[in-house]
Amino acid sequence: MKENAGPAATPLLHVDRVTVRFGGLVAVSELDLDVPEGSIVSLIGPNGAGKTTAFNCVSGIYTPSSGSVRFRGKRLERAFTPGTILRALAVGLLTGLLFAAAAVDVDRLWMAVVKRGMITGEPFTVSGAMERLRGYFRSELAIDQMAGKWRVVSADGSDVLAIKRDLGEAKLVRDALQAKVTARRTGPGTIPDATDLDLRDDGAAPVVALPPVKEEVLDRLAGGKSRIRWRGWLGLLSGLILGAAGTLAVWQRGRRSPHVVARAGISRTFQNIRLFSSMSVLENVLVGLDRTIPGGVFSMLLRTPKNRRDEAEARRQALAALEFVGLSGDANRIAGELPYGDQRRLEIARALATGAKLILLDEPAAGMNPSEAGDLAGLIERIRDRGVTVLLIEHHMNVVMRVSDRIAVLDHGTKIAEGTPAEVRRDEKVIEAYLGGEG
Question: What is the bridge-based pairing of β-strands 11-22 and 25-36?
Protein backbone atom coordinates (compact mmCIF):
# COMPACT_ATOMS: atom_id res chain seq x y z
CA MET A 1 0.00 0.00 0.00
CA LYS A 2 1.20 3.49 -0.84
CA GLU A 3 1.37 6.33 1.65
CA ASN A 4 -1.90 8.19 2.35
CA ALA A 5 -3.88 5.47 0.61
CA GLY A 6 -6.61 3.26 1.91
CA PRO A 7 -10.25 3.46 2.88
CA ALA A 8 -9.49 5.26 6.14
CA ALA A 9 -8.24 8.34 4.27
CA THR A 10 -10.65 11.27 3.88
CA PRO A 11 -12.47 10.89 0.54
CA LEU A 12 -11.59 13.69 -1.83
CA LEU A 13 -14.25 12.45 -4.23
CA HIS A 14 -17.43 10.72 -3.07
CA VAL A 15 -19.73 9.14 -5.65
CA ASP A 16 -22.99 8.22 -3.92
CA ARG A 17 -25.41 5.78 -5.58
CA VAL A 18 -25.04 7.39 -9.01
CA THR A 19 -27.29 6.03 -11.74
CA VAL A 20 -27.20 7.11 -15.39
CA ARG A 21 -30.01 6.20 -17.78
CA PHE A 22 -30.24 6.80 -21.51
CA GLY A 23 -33.88 6.14 -22.21
CA GLY A 24 -34.46 2.54 -21.16
CA LEU A 25 -30.74 1.73 -21.02
CA VAL A 26 -29.08 1.85 -17.59
CA ALA A 27 -25.42 2.64 -18.29
CA VAL A 28 -24.41 2.98 -14.62
CA SER A 29 -26.45 1.56 -11.74
CA GLU A 30 -26.16 2.92 -8.18
CA LEU A 31 -22.40 3.35 -8.27
CA ASP A 32 -20.71 4.02 -4.92
CA LEU A 33 -17.06 5.04 -5.08
CA ASP A 34 -14.70 6.87 -2.72
CA VAL A 35 -11.40 8.32 -3.91
CA PRO A 36 -9.18 9.19 -0.91
CA GLU A 37 -6.95 12.23 -1.23
CA GLY A 38 -3.42 11.43 -2.34
CA SER A 39 -4.31 8.02 -3.77
CA ILE A 40 -4.59 6.32 -7.15
CA VAL A 41 -7.93 4.57 -7.65
CA SER A 42 -8.56 2.56 -10.80
CA LEU A 43 -11.91 1.82 -12.41
CA ILE A 44 -11.74 -1.28 -14.59
CA GLY A 45 -14.14 -3.54 -16.41
CA PRO A 46 -14.98 -4.92 -19.87
CA ASN A 47 -15.76 -2.60 -22.75
CA GLY A 48 -19.25 -1.17 -22.30
CA ALA A 49 -19.17 -1.64 -18.53
CA GLY A 50 -19.96 2.06 -17.93
CA LYS A 51 -16.51 3.31 -16.90
CA THR A 52 -16.36 6.34 -19.20
CA THR A 53 -19.99 7.14 -18.41
CA ALA A 54 -19.04 7.30 -14.74
CA PHE A 55 -16.14 9.61 -15.65
CA ASN A 56 -18.50 11.81 -17.63
CA CYS A 57 -20.75 12.13 -14.59
CA VAL A 58 -17.86 13.23 -12.40
CA SER A 59 -16.52 15.70 -14.99
CA GLY A 60 -19.93 17.30 -15.62
CA ILE A 61 -20.53 16.09 -19.17
CA TYR A 62 -23.49 13.99 -18.00
CA THR A 63 -25.95 14.74 -15.24
CA PRO A 64 -26.74 11.67 -13.11
CA SER A 65 -30.30 10.41 -13.34
CA SER A 66 -30.08 9.89 -9.59
CA GLY A 67 -27.43 10.00 -6.88
CA SER A 68 -24.83 12.66 -6.23
CA VAL A 69 -21.15 13.47 -6.72
CA ARG A 70 -19.31 15.34 -3.97
CA PHE A 71 -15.83 16.82 -4.16
CA ARG A 72 -14.17 17.99 -0.95
CA GLY A 73 -17.46 17.37 0.79
CA LYS A 74 -19.49 19.64 -1.50
CA ARG A 75 -21.79 18.83 -4.39
CA LEU A 76 -20.20 19.46 -7.76
CA GLU A 77 -22.55 22.24 -8.82
CA ARG A 78 -22.87 26.00 -8.65
CA ALA A 79 -24.56 27.35 -5.55
CA PHE A 80 -27.92 29.12 -5.87
CA THR A 81 -27.26 32.64 -4.54
CA PRO A 82 -29.07 36.00 -4.42
CA GLY A 83 -26.82 37.05 -7.29
CA THR A 84 -28.39 34.30 -9.41
CA ILE A 85 -31.84 35.74 -8.78
CA LEU A 86 -30.69 39.30 -9.51
CA ARG A 87 -29.14 38.26 -12.83
CA ALA A 88 -32.30 36.41 -13.80
CA LEU A 89 -34.42 39.46 -12.94
CA ALA A 90 -32.10 41.73 -14.93
CA VAL A 91 -32.44 39.53 -18.01
CA GLY A 92 -36.19 39.30 -17.37
CA LEU A 93 -36.50 43.10 -17.19
CA LEU A 94 -34.61 43.55 -20.46
CA THR A 95 -36.78 40.90 -22.11
CA GLY A 96 -39.88 42.55 -20.66
CA LEU A 97 -38.93 45.93 -22.14
CA LEU A 98 -38.45 44.31 -25.54
CA PHE A 99 -41.80 42.53 -25.24
CA ALA A 100 -43.49 45.77 -24.16
CA ALA A 101 -42.05 47.60 -27.18
CA ALA A 102 -43.27 44.82 -29.45
CA ALA A 103 -46.72 44.82 -27.80
CA VAL A 104 -47.29 48.51 -28.44
CA ASP A 105 -45.99 48.15 -32.04
CA VAL A 106 -42.35 49.09 -32.58
CA ASP A 107 -42.89 50.52 -36.07
CA ARG A 108 -45.66 52.87 -34.93
CA LEU A 109 -43.71 53.77 -31.81
CA TRP A 110 -40.75 54.77 -33.98
CA MET A 111 -43.06 56.75 -36.25
CA ALA A 112 -44.64 58.60 -33.33
CA VAL A 113 -41.50 59.35 -31.30
CA VAL A 114 -38.77 59.93 -33.90
CA LYS A 115 -40.00 60.17 -37.45
CA ARG A 116 -43.00 62.41 -36.71
CA GLY A 117 -40.71 65.05 -35.25
CA MET A 118 -38.61 64.95 -38.42
CA ILE A 119 -41.71 65.36 -40.59
CA THR A 120 -42.86 68.47 -38.74
CA GLY A 121 -39.36 69.95 -38.88
CA GLU A 122 -38.73 69.88 -35.14
CA PRO A 123 -35.08 69.57 -34.10
CA PHE A 124 -34.45 66.27 -32.33
CA THR A 125 -34.04 66.62 -28.59
CA VAL A 126 -34.32 64.08 -25.83
CA SER A 127 -37.00 66.12 -24.09
CA GLY A 128 -38.99 66.39 -27.31
CA ALA A 129 -38.72 62.66 -27.95
CA MET A 130 -39.82 61.89 -24.38
CA GLU A 131 -42.78 64.24 -24.77
CA ARG A 132 -43.84 62.48 -27.96
CA LEU A 133 -43.37 59.12 -26.22
CA ARG A 134 -45.61 60.32 -23.39
CA GLY A 135 -48.16 61.46 -25.95
CA TYR A 136 -48.07 58.03 -27.64
CA PHE A 137 -48.86 56.20 -24.41
CA ARG A 138 -51.56 58.78 -23.59
CA SER A 139 -52.98 58.05 -27.05
CA GLU A 140 -53.01 61.76 -27.93
CA LEU A 141 -53.75 62.97 -31.43
CA ALA A 142 -50.80 64.10 -33.52
CA ILE A 143 -49.88 65.82 -36.76
CA ASP A 144 -47.87 64.49 -39.65
CA GLN A 145 -47.41 65.39 -43.30
CA MET A 146 -48.12 63.66 -46.59
CA ALA A 147 -47.97 65.00 -50.13
CA GLY A 148 -47.43 68.54 -48.87
CA LYS A 149 -50.53 68.54 -46.67
CA TRP A 150 -50.87 68.33 -42.89
CA ARG A 151 -52.86 65.47 -41.42
CA VAL A 152 -54.44 65.12 -38.00
CA VAL A 153 -53.98 61.49 -37.04
CA SER A 154 -54.34 59.17 -34.07
CA ALA A 155 -51.24 58.50 -31.95
CA ASP A 156 -50.38 55.33 -33.85
CA GLY A 157 -51.15 56.88 -37.23
CA SER A 158 -53.89 54.36 -38.07
CA ASP A 159 -56.75 56.93 -38.14
CA VAL A 160 -56.66 60.06 -40.31
CA LEU A 161 -59.18 62.55 -38.90
CA ALA A 162 -58.51 65.69 -40.95
CA ILE A 163 -56.32 67.04 -43.75
CA LYS A 164 -55.33 70.71 -43.86
CA ARG A 165 -53.04 72.79 -46.04
CA ASP A 166 -52.01 75.09 -43.19
CA LEU A 167 -50.04 73.78 -40.21
CA GLY A 168 -51.61 76.29 -37.81
CA GLU A 169 -55.12 75.29 -38.84
CA ALA A 170 -54.19 71.61 -38.49
CA LYS A 171 -53.02 72.28 -34.93
CA LEU A 172 -56.30 73.99 -34.06
CA VAL A 173 -58.28 71.05 -35.43
CA ARG A 174 -56.07 68.60 -33.53
CA ASP A 175 -56.56 70.46 -30.24
CA ALA A 176 -60.32 70.69 -30.66
CA LEU A 177 -60.64 67.00 -31.55
CA GLN A 178 -58.35 66.07 -28.68
CA ALA A 179 -60.67 67.90 -26.31
CA LYS A 180 -63.63 65.89 -27.60
CA VAL A 181 -61.71 62.61 -27.25
CA THR A 182 -60.54 63.45 -23.74
CA ALA A 183 -64.10 64.34 -22.69
CA ARG A 184 -65.25 60.86 -23.66
CA ARG A 185 -62.68 59.05 -21.54
CA THR A 186 -63.80 57.48 -18.29
CA GLY A 187 -62.03 55.82 -15.38
CA PRO A 188 -58.99 56.66 -13.21
CA GLY A 189 -56.35 58.89 -14.78
CA THR A 190 -58.53 60.19 -17.60
CA ILE A 191 -59.32 63.68 -16.28
CA PRO A 192 -59.00 66.12 -19.19
CA ASP A 193 -55.57 67.69 -19.42
CA ALA A 194 -55.24 71.46 -19.96
CA THR A 195 -52.63 70.73 -22.65
CA ASP A 196 -55.38 69.20 -24.77
CA LEU A 197 -56.54 72.75 -25.68
CA ASP A 198 -54.63 75.66 -27.16
CA LEU A 199 -56.50 78.35 -25.17
CA ARG A 200 -56.66 81.99 -26.25
CA ASP A 201 -55.48 84.83 -24.04
CA ASP A 202 -59.00 85.25 -22.62
CA GLY A 203 -59.04 81.58 -21.57
CA ALA A 204 -61.51 80.47 -24.23
CA ALA A 205 -60.84 77.86 -26.86
CA PRO A 206 -60.47 79.21 -30.38
CA VAL A 207 -63.39 78.56 -32.70
CA VAL A 208 -62.53 76.13 -35.50
CA ALA A 209 -64.59 74.18 -37.98
CA LEU A 210 -64.26 70.49 -37.14
CA PRO A 211 -64.47 67.79 -39.77
CA PRO A 212 -67.20 65.18 -39.35
CA VAL A 213 -65.90 62.30 -37.25
CA LYS A 214 -68.01 59.22 -36.56
CA GLU A 215 -68.99 58.58 -32.99
CA GLU A 216 -67.53 55.07 -33.02
CA VAL A 217 -64.16 56.51 -34.10
CA LEU A 218 -64.19 58.97 -31.21
CA ASP A 219 -65.10 56.16 -28.82
CA ARG A 220 -62.23 54.03 -30.12
CA LEU A 221 -59.80 56.91 -29.78
CA ALA A 222 -61.06 57.58 -26.26
CA GLY A 223 -60.37 53.99 -25.27
CA GLY A 224 -56.98 53.89 -26.94
CA LYS A 225 -55.13 55.18 -23.90
CA SER A 226 -56.10 52.25 -21.71
CA ARG A 227 -55.60 49.70 -24.51
CA ILE A 228 -52.07 50.76 -25.30
CA ARG A 229 -51.15 50.83 -21.62
CA TRP A 230 -52.61 47.38 -21.04
CA ARG A 231 -50.70 46.01 -24.02
CA GLY A 232 -47.50 47.59 -22.70
CA TRP A 233 -47.93 46.28 -19.16
CA LEU A 234 -48.92 42.83 -20.42
CA GLY A 235 -45.86 42.70 -22.69
CA LEU A 236 -43.61 43.86 -19.86
CA LEU A 237 -44.99 41.28 -17.42
CA SER A 238 -44.88 38.43 -19.96
CA GLY A 239 -41.32 39.24 -20.97
CA LEU A 240 -40.23 39.56 -17.34
CA ILE A 241 -41.62 36.11 -16.49
CA LEU A 242 -40.31 34.40 -19.63
CA GLY A 243 -36.89 36.07 -19.46
CA ALA A 244 -36.34 35.29 -15.78
CA ALA A 245 -37.67 31.73 -16.09
CA GLY A 246 -35.57 31.08 -19.20
CA THR A 247 -32.44 32.42 -17.52
CA LEU A 248 -32.98 30.19 -14.49
CA ALA A 249 -33.61 27.19 -16.78
CA VAL A 250 -30.33 27.80 -18.64
CA TRP A 251 -28.52 28.32 -15.33
CA GLN A 252 -29.93 25.04 -14.03
CA ARG A 253 -28.77 23.14 -17.12
CA GLY A 254 -25.27 24.53 -16.67
CA ARG A 255 -25.19 24.01 -12.93
CA ARG A 256 -22.91 20.96 -13.27
CA SER A 257 -21.14 21.91 -16.48
CA PRO A 258 -17.53 20.84 -17.13
CA HIS A 259 -16.55 24.48 -16.61
CA VAL A 260 -17.93 24.39 -13.05
CA VAL A 261 -16.23 21.06 -12.34
CA ALA A 262 -12.88 22.31 -13.68
CA ARG A 263 -13.04 25.39 -11.46
CA ALA A 264 -13.72 23.13 -8.48
CA GLY A 265 -10.34 21.42 -9.07
CA ILE A 266 -10.98 18.43 -11.35
CA SER A 267 -9.48 17.91 -14.80
CA ARG A 268 -9.43 14.95 -17.15
CA THR A 269 -8.13 13.34 -20.32
CA PHE A 270 -10.16 11.35 -22.85
CA GLN A 271 -10.00 7.96 -24.56
CA ASN A 272 -9.57 9.66 -27.91
CA ILE A 273 -6.83 12.28 -27.91
CA ARG A 274 -8.30 15.78 -27.94
CA LEU A 275 -5.48 18.14 -28.74
CA PHE A 276 -5.40 21.27 -30.90
CA SER A 277 -3.25 19.53 -33.48
CA SER A 278 -2.35 22.68 -35.46
CA MET A 279 -1.20 24.58 -32.35
CA SER A 280 2.15 24.25 -30.67
CA VAL A 281 2.76 21.98 -27.69
CA LEU A 282 3.16 25.00 -25.41
CA GLU A 283 -0.03 26.63 -26.70
CA ASN A 284 -2.00 23.45 -25.99
CA VAL A 285 -0.95 23.62 -22.34
CA LEU A 286 -1.64 27.35 -22.16
CA VAL A 287 -5.24 26.63 -23.18
CA GLY A 288 -5.65 24.82 -19.87
CA LEU A 289 -4.31 27.89 -18.04
CA ASP A 290 -6.57 30.44 -19.71
CA ARG A 291 -8.95 30.66 -16.74
CA THR A 292 -6.05 31.53 -14.44
CA ILE A 293 -5.44 34.83 -16.29
CA PRO A 294 -7.83 37.44 -14.80
CA GLY A 295 -8.92 40.70 -16.37
CA GLY A 296 -11.04 39.53 -19.27
CA VAL A 297 -11.04 40.66 -22.90
CA PHE A 298 -10.37 44.36 -22.29
CA SER A 299 -7.28 43.63 -20.22
CA MET A 300 -5.93 41.43 -23.02
CA LEU A 301 -6.72 43.99 -25.72
CA LEU A 302 -5.05 46.79 -23.78
CA ARG A 303 -2.11 44.58 -22.80
CA THR A 304 -2.00 46.02 -19.30
CA PRO A 305 1.13 45.42 -17.19
CA LYS A 306 -0.81 43.04 -14.92
CA ASN A 307 -2.05 41.09 -17.92
CA ARG A 308 1.52 40.74 -19.22
CA ARG A 309 2.70 39.53 -15.81
CA ASP A 310 -0.17 37.01 -15.59
CA GLU A 311 0.57 35.69 -19.08
CA ALA A 312 4.26 35.34 -18.24
CA GLU A 313 3.35 33.38 -15.10
CA ALA A 314 1.01 31.14 -17.13
CA ARG A 315 3.79 30.48 -19.61
CA ARG A 316 6.14 29.56 -16.75
CA GLN A 317 3.57 27.12 -15.34
CA ALA A 318 2.99 25.60 -18.77
CA LEU A 319 6.70 25.01 -19.29
CA ALA A 320 6.94 23.46 -15.81
CA ALA A 321 4.10 21.06 -16.67
CA LEU A 322 5.82 20.09 -19.91
CA GLU A 323 9.08 19.50 -18.08
CA PHE A 324 7.26 17.30 -15.57
CA VAL A 325 5.96 14.98 -18.31
CA GLY A 326 9.24 15.06 -20.25
CA LEU A 327 8.20 17.32 -23.15
CA SER A 328 10.05 20.54 -22.35
CA GLY A 329 12.25 20.12 -25.41
CA ASP A 330 9.19 19.93 -27.69
CA ALA A 331 7.45 23.09 -26.47
CA ASN A 332 7.57 24.79 -29.89
CA ARG A 333 6.67 21.75 -31.98
CA ILE A 334 3.26 21.40 -33.60
CA ALA A 335 1.20 19.11 -31.37
CA GLY A 336 -0.03 17.00 -34.29
CA GLU A 337 3.56 16.10 -35.19
CA LEU A 338 4.27 14.42 -31.82
CA PRO A 339 4.42 10.61 -31.56
CA TYR A 340 1.28 9.02 -30.17
CA GLY A 341 2.70 8.40 -26.71
CA ASP A 342 3.94 11.98 -26.42
CA GLN A 343 0.51 13.27 -27.40
CA ARG A 344 -0.89 11.33 -24.44
CA ARG A 345 1.69 12.96 -22.20
CA LEU A 346 0.76 16.37 -23.58
CA GLU A 347 -2.88 15.81 -22.64
CA ILE A 348 -1.78 14.93 -19.11
CA ALA A 349 0.42 18.05 -18.96
CA ARG A 350 -2.52 20.23 -19.97
CA ALA A 351 -4.72 18.64 -17.30
CA LEU A 352 -2.04 19.12 -14.63
CA ALA A 353 -1.43 22.74 -15.61
CA THR A 354 -4.95 23.67 -14.53
CA GLY A 355 -3.86 23.15 -10.92
CA ALA A 356 -6.36 20.33 -10.43
CA LYS A 357 -6.37 18.36 -7.19
CA LEU A 358 -8.02 15.38 -8.89
CA ILE A 359 -7.16 14.22 -12.38
CA LEU A 360 -9.24 11.66 -14.31
CA LEU A 361 -7.19 9.60 -16.77
CA ASP A 362 -9.31 7.72 -19.30
CA GLU A 363 -7.23 4.87 -20.78
CA PRO A 364 -3.98 6.88 -21.03
CA ALA A 365 -1.97 3.78 -22.04
CA ALA A 366 -4.28 2.87 -24.94
CA GLY A 367 -2.23 2.09 -28.04
CA MET A 368 1.11 2.03 -26.19
CA ASN A 369 3.64 -0.76 -26.30
CA PRO A 370 4.77 -2.39 -23.01
CA SER A 371 7.78 -0.10 -22.68
CA GLU A 372 5.70 3.06 -23.18
CA ALA A 373 3.04 1.74 -20.80
CA GLY A 374 5.70 1.17 -18.15
CA ASP A 375 6.96 4.72 -18.54
CA LEU A 376 3.39 5.99 -18.25
CA ALA A 377 2.89 4.03 -15.02
CA GLY A 378 5.94 5.78 -13.61
CA LEU A 379 4.48 9.15 -14.64
CA ILE A 380 1.18 8.36 -12.92
CA GLU A 381 3.03 7.49 -9.72
CA ARG A 382 4.95 10.76 -9.91
CA ILE A 383 1.66 12.61 -10.33
CA ARG A 384 0.41 11.03 -7.11
CA ASP A 385 3.69 11.86 -5.37
CA ARG A 386 3.22 15.46 -6.50
CA GLY A 387 0.06 15.62 -4.37
CA VAL A 388 -2.50 15.13 -7.15
CA THR A 389 -5.10 12.40 -6.66
CA VAL A 390 -5.70 10.13 -9.66
CA LEU A 391 -8.83 8.30 -10.81
CA LEU A 392 -7.78 5.95 -13.62
CA ILE A 393 -9.55 3.92 -16.28
CA GLU A 394 -7.18 1.43 -17.89
CA HIS A 395 -7.16 -1.95 -19.65
CA HIS A 396 -3.42 -2.54 -19.23
CA MET A 397 -3.48 -4.75 -16.16
CA ASN A 398 0.24 -4.37 -15.60
CA VAL A 399 -0.25 -0.59 -15.25
CA VAL A 400 -3.37 -0.98 -13.07
CA MET A 401 -1.82 -3.51 -10.68
CA ARG A 402 1.40 -1.51 -10.40
CA VAL A 403 0.03 1.95 -9.62
CA SER A 404 -3.35 1.41 -7.95
CA ASP A 405 -4.03 1.80 -4.25
CA ARG A 406 -7.57 0.55 -4.76
CA ILE A 407 -9.47 -0.89 -7.69
CA ALA A 408 -13.20 -0.85 -8.42
CA VAL A 409 -14.60 -3.22 -11.04
CA LEU A 410 -17.68 -2.48 -13.16
CA ASP A 411 -19.67 -4.98 -15.18
CA HIS A 412 -22.76 -3.91 -17.15
CA GLY A 413 -22.90 -0.66 -15.19
CA THR A 414 -22.80 -2.31 -11.76
CA LYS A 415 -19.87 -2.40 -9.37
CA ILE A 416 -19.09 -6.06 -8.72
CA ALA A 417 -15.92 -5.70 -6.65
CA GLU A 418 -13.67 -3.21 -4.91
CA GLY A 419 -10.46 -3.55 -2.95
CA THR A 420 -6.70 -3.63 -3.15
CA PRO A 421 -5.05 -4.99 -6.30
CA ALA A 422 -4.37 -8.30 -4.54
CA GLU A 423 -7.99 -8.60 -3.37
CA VAL A 424 -9.41 -7.79 -6.79
CA ARG A 425 -7.04 -10.21 -8.53
CA ARG A 426 -8.42 -13.07 -6.40
CA ASP A 427 -12.11 -12.13 -6.68
CA GLU A 428 -14.04 -14.84 -8.55
CA LYS A 429 -16.54 -12.40 -10.06
CA VAL A 430 -13.72 -10.30 -11.45
CA ILE A 431 -11.93 -13.37 -12.83
CA GLU A 432 -15.13 -14.46 -14.54
CA ALA A 433 -16.16 -11.06 -15.89
CA TYR A 434 -12.86 -9.50 -16.78
CA LEU A 435 -9.58 -11.31 -16.14
CA GLY A 436 -10.64 -14.43 -17.99
CA GLY A 437 -9.47 -16.83 -15.31
CA GLU A 438 -6.00 -15.35 -14.83
CA GLY A 439 -4.64 -15.71 -11.30
Answer: antiparallel
